Amino acid sequence: MKQTPETIVLVNFGCEGIQKFARAIRDRHIYTMVMPCTVPAERVMEEKPVGLILCADAGTPERPGAREKFEALNLPILDLTSGAGANDVDAAVAFCCQCGCTGSWTMEKFIDEAVADIRRQVGDAKVVLGLSGGVDSSVVAALIHKAIGKQLTCVFVNHGLLRKNEPELVQEVFARNFDMNLCYIDASDRFLDKLKGVGDPEQKRKIIGREFIEVFAEAAAKINAPFLGQGTIYPDILESIPLDGNPNGVIKSHHNVGGLPKNMKFKLVEPVERLFKDEVRQVGRLLGLPSELIDRHPFPGPSLGVRHVGPIERNTLHMLREADAIVTEELTKAGWYHKTWQTFAIFVPVKTVGIKNGQRSYDYVIAIRSINSVDAVTAQVVRLPWELLETMMERIVREVDGVNRVVYDITAKPPGTIEWE
Ligand code: XMP
């Protein structure tokens, strides 16, 4: 039985900023959940809410009959269907207090409750977790480990496309500092052999995805755990719920386990599925994860694979990895790392003429991309200082064999995507 904090349910009648609104109320230590207006009343009551806030943007058409089912629940209601905005946070908090919320929901408390929930759910069984080194899976690993220690085994697959020093960092943090059961699998050769000669971006993604599942499933089968830990977070769930009951209306489908073979039947342990991204980060910090893991830029699952245009060769992948490390190092040194959403290098399989060490060279191009974004749906190019870009360029051309030209990508999204592939 899950422990339930004092919960306020925000009912979405068509409010674009509802996630932000729910998050802003949580900042005042009041636990909020978001549900679509099509939710069955029983589902609302399962969460034992102490009050409801009905939200819509100004001008959203009325939904005849939708409101009555909430009114019939006999709970206090704050009606913001004529337009819910950022300024309403204070009014919403005042309403929550009238409903009896004590403002005592903190991340420390969340951790205590999550640990108790995990222990209750898992008992003395084993849990397996795919650790990518990203924020969500790292925090979930630390949280489940706090709850059940060595009953958890993390599987970290090196698909050969990781950034420089990434395998070392993940092993250092988890196996060494956390004394965690970590199964490290270096499958680089397997992936790179399968990717040989493949230039089509979709094909590359498919190969990486398929191999990843196979390698993970092989490792998980040996561990023989009935439970699978997952780093599902609240936006993954919210964005997979259609507002109007029509499944085609979802922003993205939540199918983290969709790819696992059918004979692998796991029960899921998803302890941060009710948290927003920055709350997940707070939990990670409280659990002692280093900033290097917690505050890093978002990084795509297929990793350098989507930043290397054209067929991936070991030598050109090496160029990209080295160039990317230089970009990150210089960005950090200049104090710009945390001022950008993502900044990275791309390998461009085009050779151009240049002069290196006084000699004619005919080498490859590296592109640098730096963007800011709120939700990755749109992105703006960051105007990095010219001097910083020059330093990156000078080091890349000098230190990375095979590269003699560096360009800066000035394309916003749209029309460009963030990644090149
Ligand atoms: P695009 O390139 O579509 O990227 O503008 C939007 C955001 O999503 C990230 N991205 C991925 N993340 N697996 C991931 O986990 C992927 O296959 C993937 N492809 C893109 C990208 O880094 C950006 O933040």
Could you walk me through the main structural features you see in this protein, from its secondary elements to its overall organization?
This protein has 421 residues and is of the alpha/beta class. It folds into three domains: 92 residues, Rossmann fold (3-Layer(aba) Sandwich); 185 residues, HUPs (Rossmann fold, 3-Layer(aba) Sandwich), CATH 3.40.50; 97 residues, 2-Layer Sandwich (GMP Synthetase, Chain A, domain 3), CATH 3.30.300. A hairpin with a 7-residue loop joins β11 and β12. The mean pLDDT is 93. The structure holds xanthosine-5'-monophosphate (XMP). Xanthosine-5'-monophosphate binds next to loops.
Main features:
421 residues, Rossmann fold, GMP Synthetase, Chain A, domain 3, binds xanthosine-5'-monophosphate, 13 strands, single chain, 14 helices
Helix content: 25-40%
Mean pLDDT: 93
The percentage of residues in β strands lies in 15-25%
CATH superfamily of the largest domain: HUPs
In short:
This protein has helices spanning 18-26, 41-46, 68-71, 89-98, 107-122, 135-148, 166-177, 188-195, 201-223, 234-238, 277-286, 291-294, 314-333, 386-399, and strands at 7-12, 31-36, 49-55, 77-80, 127-130, 152-158, 181-186, 227-229, 267-269, 342-356, 359-372, 380-381, 403-408.
